[in-house]
Amino acid sequence: MRSWSIPAGRIFGVDIRIDLSFVLLLLFIGVIERASNIVINPVRGTALVAIMFGSVVLHELGHALVGRHSGVPPRAIILMPIGGATIFDEAQPAILPDWKRDIKIAIAGPVVNLLIAAVSAIVLSQAVPGLRLWDNFFVSSTNLPHSLVWSNLWLAGFNLLPAYPMDGGRVLRAFFRRQMDQVSATRRAVSIGRGFGVAFLLAGYWNLWFAAIGAFLFIAAQREDRTAVFQSVLETVRLEDIMLTDFMILSPADTLEDALEKAVHCLQDDFPVIRGADMVGVVSRQKMLQALRSEGNGYVQAIMSRMFDVSPKTETLASAFRKLSARNLSILPVVDQQQLVGIVTLQNLMHSMALLAETRKLRKTALES
What we know:
Number of strands: 9
Largest sheet: 4 strands, mixed
């Protein structure tokens, strides 16, 4: 998701990112209005996107605030035209399943949009008596006050559909989780979400807005499916299954030139530093190069980091990933009975997770067919 989004600041300590589909939405509005013989006004078109964007932001903040109040603090929100995705802090311990809590968090977003629509309708009806908000339900840049009310009503309505990852689909998944594990519940809800996506795409024959919603819904469902498989790998695979067992170690008495000479013959970027049978630090290839350039040849002991963590080989990838992310580590030594038996780097971990997730997805697809 991060590769398809751009940062847009922080609100209440939560990172906000904008999905690139918002750019497609701007182009789509232009195409729709040109097809309807409406004179295109770039300022009004941008204002309409801003209304939708603001509505989605408030929608997702509703989820975030209720989640934080319920003990599930968010770390980031990725905004899409028909909703968004909340990413929870990987550094938090595993959150116990609670279907009632999940339903409460899911419906918070649509409730926010319904409140915005209600308050806007009341204020606008008083301020502009002849506005005629209820004559039609279309969203257009030609009538921005009308679009403010109806974009929130549409956003709430579509998110209440039982189509994952819409909020109604999250409610459906919460009910599924009462009888099955998280991944199975998510994948069942995702399959229903894909069905709704196809239905909206077919409905696009009569209205292009439905086609756009179907496309966004189908893409979002695919992303959630990949995330579910990825999470399954995180929680079930252990470090001993993916750790690097053929790795190079350095001594604190090695000079930087000697250490870099050793590093030439391996693909590691980070190295455990061992004195006798004890691990005393870690050092990176980049740090050795920087020290050699700025201070000349010295010893590994002078630049190695003594701040490191270790993990048992039976630890899950989820736990290891939380350690690496939360403490900004680049290498995680793996021990068994206090002996160093392997290492895990962030690059190695991400590569292994991607391969395992793809393998599991292919295996599951083969079984289903």
